[in-house]
Amino acid sequence: MSNTMKAALYNEFGELDNIETGTMDKPEPGEGEVLLKVKAAGVNPVDAAVARGMLKDAIPTEFPVIPGWDVAGIVEENGFSARRFSEGDEVYAYARRPTIQKGTFAEYVSLPESYLAKRPASISMEEAGGIPLVGLTAYQSIFDAGNLQDGQTLLILGASGGVGTLAIQLAKSAGAHVIGVASESNHDYMKELGADETIDYSKGHVGEQVSEMVADGIDLIFHCSRGDSLSECMESGILSDDGKVVSITKSKPEDEWDVDYEYVFVEPNSSQLKHMSELADEGKLKIPSTKLYSLNEAAQALKDVETLHNRGKLIITP
User: Fold this and answer.
1) What is the distance of C-alpha 18 from the center of its chain?
2) Residue 261 near residue 244 (C-beta atoms within 8 A)
3) Which residues belong to CATH 3.40.50.720 in the chain?
4) How far apart, in whole angstroms, are the C-alpha atoms of residue 187 and residue 205?
5) Distance (Å, whole) CA 268 – CA 307
6) Which residues in the chain are classed under CATH 3.90.180.10?
7) Taking 80 as the threshold, does the pLDDT of residue 312 lie above it?
8) Alpha helix positions (H), the chain
């Protein structure tokens, strides 16, 4: 068996064209780790941001870097004391490590078994590879930080993107009333996912549109977009007295906002992945329309995801 593998990699921060396909040593699983043969690696906007050096002051980096934090694959080898999974098991994971270096845009990746969960059996490997980062981001935002409950109203700003797509479905699985904000071209899409009501941010003040819809206020605002929508919501006073704002794009609230506010940066969590796998197998969670790229097309995949105009997930298939 070969001791090398193919991987997308870069040796410095900067333009995405710096990313090339090369040959690297095949990783060996350390203590408590599992070696995965990568079948699908989701592409996310943060991957492009990392490659451009936008997170270099927040997370340590060692070059060369293999990009990618999403993975679905097959267990090929267990390291010492790694016994949760057997060779041949199909699993998925959010693969961010404390140091940015060994990502998932490769034929193999070695990860702590504590990161892994059995992948959903009812969807394709490619679809499974697009769930972990966006799914865990949505899960940790609306449930862990937002404490969303049955019967509450959730407003999602940026509801048609990757994270919003999962947030709509997770919120509906918990019995919440969901209002999704996105361009009008995505309204049917959001309703297919389960959104109860939709708002077009280009049709006027978002806060005023929400206030016409909801008499008792919003219990949770999930902010996963750019632009002015959050400010418009805050100045309209649509948040209920005990409501909360959770954001994945704005680390701090404005000084004039007197509001319960929390910023979320997603972390690996196998038990939450297990729950999402169960929801997917129950037909309550899906990743609509995936677009596939080879390792040689990794740079183009990152350019495409950076536009923020993709519906569904972009997937690297080594």
Assistant:
1) 24
2) yes
3) 134-263
4) 17
5) 26
6) 4-131+287-316
7) no
8) 45-51, 125-128, 132-139, 162-173, 187-193, 206-213, 229-236, 270-281, 298-306
Based on the number of CB atoms within 10 Å of its own CB, is 12 exposed (0-12), middle (13-18) or buried (19 or more)? exposed
Cis ω on the peptide bond leading into residue 64 (within 30° of 0)? yes
Residue owning tokens 């536009």: 307
Separation between Cα atoms, residue 310 and residue 253, nearest integer Å: 28
Q: What is the pLDDT of residues 197-242, one digit of tens each?
A: 999 999 999 999 999 999 889 999 999 998 899 999 999 999 999 9
DSSP string, 74-127: EEEEE-TT--SS-TT-EEEEE---SSEEE-SSBSEEEEEGGGEEEPPSSS-HHH
Q: Which amino acid makes up residue 239? A: L
Hey, what CATH topology would domain 4-131+287-316 get? Quinone Oxidoreductase; Chain A, domain 1 (3.90.180)
Burial class of residue 252 in the structure, from the number of CB atoms within 10 Å of its CB (0-12 exposed, 13-18 middle, 19+ buried): exposed
Query: Do residues 193 and 217 lie in contact, with contact meaning Cβ atoms separated by under 8 Å?
Result: no
134-263 folds as: Rossmann fold (3.40.50)
Q: Does pTM surpass 0.90?
A: yes
Place of tokens 């993975």: 71
Q: Are 43 and 310 in contact (CB under 8 A)?
A: no
One-letter amino acid of 128: A
| Strands 100-102 and 61-66, sheet pairing | parallel
